[in-house]
Predict the 3D structure of the following.
Amino acid sequence: MSEASAPLPDLIEQEIATRGPIPFARFMELCLFHPRHGYYTRGLGGGGGRDYLTSSGIHRAYGALVARQAGEMWRRTERPDPFLFVEFGPGEGYFAADFLQEAARTQEFAAALRYLLVETSAALAARQKARLAGHASIPVEWIAEEDLERRAGFSGCLFANEVLDAFPVHRVVGTPDGPREVHVTARDGVLEETLLPLSGAAVARFLEEEAVRPQEGQEVDLNLAAPCWISWAVRLLRRGYLLVVDYGKEAPDLYHPARRRGTLLAYHRHGANEEFLLRPGAQDLTAHLDWTALRKAAERAGGRYLGRTTQARFLLALGALDFFPRAGEGSAGGPAPALLRRIADREALKDLVLPERMGDRFSVLSVGVGDVPRDLAGLSEPWARSREEAPAAPPGRAARRAAGAAGEER
Ligand SMILES: C[S@@+](CC[C@H](N)C(=O)[O-])C[C@H]1O[C@@H](n2cnc3c(N)ncnc32)[C@H](O)[C@@H]1O
């Protein structure tokens, strides 16, 4: 069977037959990013398969509030023109659409703003282009990493929402003979795991540098690519900020001996599972980030760690409450669709900020590059900001959906 037509499990078996057992990280890379059959390459998940739901797809407040934050970054760094806002892994393009709509409300900021999308999947890029077709007032451009690199030395903000958690992880297990790495092999046409020596010097170096010592029987997931990515990203900027939003933990917690099985999970049809070898290319694979390693890598590259806050605090500090329907706003005796709209709107916003939903599970890591103010609004005390400060927001997409108004369902 040719490379073009063979399904992913066959291609993986072919690679194993040629090379021998492959590190799990390589297996995960093939599953998610194989140029033809990868889960993300094919645009599955968020819109195509709905295995995951991100903040970007929940309520327009998310993109709008980050746009407010970007506007403040621009104002407080002497209003550079152009100001590049670069979104990595834009998924369905919901975030970009909401961001651009909000940014367009401030004429001067909109005039300086250039919105760049870094998307490796042609299928997703096509959906993003369709979604953003109407946002002509702010220049929007899809750009490959290599081309972005050629433009290194710009002012702006780099943004990644739930992107780094998809980077392939090396799974390392403590044994009496020292750390061993999970590899994937095939027997009688069935993929299975096997423990072998570490796959390379980089894995050994990471364990050493980050002082990760898995105990006997303990498994840890090492995302080596994420610190490399953040160093690379920091070096793109002459002056500006980097915002990484994701789930993760500090190293002492992430690799604590009490955590026996790491954090890797597979997602299929909105359900989590640990059948990592099943459904190659047809299910999402994701692991928590190591915030400690990311901070250190950003600092080594010359960035300044500005802080990490929860998504809830970040969004509330930027004015998330402005988007909540105000108490008593025409609810009693109002038409039923309007009431339903407000309830759906409120629930979507609660998903973003309630601690037990996404509010505390997600963090925002902020890094500054060059001489930039560090006291960003999003990192400030949420309750210091009164909701009277900002203009009333239009109803969210979830609200419009509940009301049966026109608009595509997320
Ligand atoms: C869970 S989705 C999140 C999508 C979107 N950011 C959102 O908030 O809905 C992960 C995305 O990261 C993208 N991705 C993974 N590695 C990437 C990389 N190195 N550069 C750019 N995008 C990447 C994937 O293609 C996928 O679209």
User: Anything to note?
Assistant: The pocket of S-adenosylmethionine is lined by residues 40, 46, 52, 54, 56-57, 88-91, 95, 118, 120-121, 124, 161-163, 166 (CB under 6 Å). The first strand starts at residue 22 and ends at 23.
